[in-house]
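Task 17 of the worksheet. Students: predict the tertiary structure of the chain below and write it out as structure tokens. Keep your answer in the requested format; marks are given for formatting as well as content.
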Amino acid sequence: MIGQLRGHLLDSAPDGTLVVDVQGVGYELSTPLGAVGRMAKDADGTITLHVHTHVREDALELFGFPTTEERTTFRTLIAISKVGPKLALTVLGALSVAELVQLVETGQTRLLTKVPGIGKKTAERIVLELKGKLGPVTTAATGTGPAALTPGGSESGQGATLRETLVRMGFKAGEAERAVATLGDLERPLDQLIREALVVLAP
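Model answer:
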């Protein structure tokens, strides 16, 4: 099993797929959206990914995370019935671990359904099975999470969610605002909007 990779980033795709060169071998990994912006990098550009090796009868997949905390949360999520790796990555791309802890510990199932792919029943199952398993609430308690996940906020809506997500991915507030303005109509799934925004912001 592969538990960690250190190397240089060769390629990254808008869906979070990365190729990392480790001593001449290119490893393809799936990561949460925004993982590249959260990775620690050495002076020579070397990155470290904490890896979950997912083995199925017909495939072996690698999932990479900037921190051991994210990897642990991913593993906890996929242990829940009907929550597979793709949905777990979506959750960690939309919410930080601290934000997820806050929603779970306060039982905010309605707000969890704002994450693409999570319906009411899945949100209820996540809260039921994760409560008390993710550790103490940390930065989530500061209220700095995505604006659309803050009840009653004036910044609610897809635009606010997209801006907050882009900023958390490492973009400046002005860049996030430009992407939102460029996309215009935002009546599309959040994951699609994020991919489109990344195209707009590509150098």
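Marker's comment: The longest helix spans residues 190-201. The chain has three domains: 4-66, 69-140, 146-201.
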